[in-house]
Amino acid sequence: MTDGIYSIIFHVAEALELPVVILALLALAAVLVETGMFIVELVKRRRRTFTALARSGASAREAVDAGRTTEASALLQTVAWSSAVGAAFSVIVKEVGKTGADTRIAKELADFDFSRQGRLSRTRLLVRVGPALGLMGTLIPLAPALDGLARGDVDALTENLRLAFSITVLGILIGVLALGLSLVRERLYGQDFSDLEYIAAVLTDDGTGASAVNPVPTKPTPAATLRDPAPLTPKADLPPLTETTS
């Protein structure tokens, strides 16, 4: 009975060899696609500056106060470094000024954070799946490799060991790339969330945030002109003193 159980385990392991190799190749393709998308994200964000964000936020606040919501949304799209941020900007502008706007804006920010975590979960999954597939792809070919060694079949031993070591390297590569993408993307998406919070605060405050960026110019106060002292009026001629004799 024990031999039968062992035989089942061996057959299952052998049957998993091809699926593991296919899954490892699919994981490699997925991480390469994510790498390409990450490069595009970096190119879009290279123009990001807080000065541009602050100016667009102040201009959008002025447009919202004037009732030009479409213009305000268009102004914020110029500093939206991703489609998700642009969509969130549009929702925030639409809700500003309505009853219960703070609650709906807070819900939009929470939804953005939830979608950000979902976006990061793909590469986080590859961080764990890659090495796991590499380990499985390493151990599965070892059984036929050892069997070939026992039979003196050097070709079978070499072929299985090459497959085992290749899958190991592939799994480690997938894990390293996915880990790097996850770490950098977490910082980038955190910055996006911070930008959304800043714009939401600028559009819903009492106007001090926008005025601090675009202060209303004030005319310089003219310096007070020095007045010439009033001319001294000549003293009236006093009558000549007369000597009195006793």
Automatic annotation (TrEMBL):
Protein's membrane topology: Multi-pass membrane protein
Gene Ontology biological-process entries: protein import
Keywords: Cell membrane, Membrane, Protein transport, Transmembrane, Transmembrane helix, Transport
InterPro entries: ExbB/TolQ_transport (IPR050790), MotA_ExbB_proton_chnl (IPR002898)
Transmembrane feature ranges: 20-40, 125-143, 163-184
Subcellular location(s) of the protein: Cell membrane; Membrane
Chain ranges of the MotA/TolQ/ExbB proton channel domain: 106-179
Segments for region (Disordered): 210-246
Pfam family, one: MotA_ExbB
Domain of life: Bacteria
Primary site of residence: membrane
Similarity-based family: Belongs to the exbB/tolQ family.
Cited PANTHER family: PROTEIN TOLQ, TOL-PAL SYSTEM PROTEIN TOLQ
The protein's name in its UniProt record: Transporter
